[in-house]
Amino acid sequence: MAGLRKDFLWGASTSPHQVEGNNLNSDWWALETAPTSPFPDLSGDAVDSYHRYNEDMTLLAGAGLNAYRFGFEWARIEPADGQFSRAERDHYWRMIDAALRLGLKPVVTLHHFTLPRWFAESGGWRRPDAADRFTRYIEFIAPALQEVDWICTINEPNMLALFATIQEALFKVTDSQGAAATELATAMAQVRPDQALGDTLAQVHRRAVEVVRATTNAKAGWTVAQQAFTPTEGNEDVFERVHHEWEGFYLDVARDDDFFGVQAYTSQPVDANGPVPHPQHPDNSLTGWAYRPDALGIALRRAWDETGGVPLLVTENGIATADDTRRIAYTTEALGHLEKAVADGVDVRGYLHWSALDNYEWGRYAPTFGLIAVDRETFVRTPKPSLAWLGACARRNGLH
Ligand code: BGC
Question: Which CATH superfamily is domain 9-396 in?
Answer without folding.
Answer: Glycosidases (3.20.20.80)
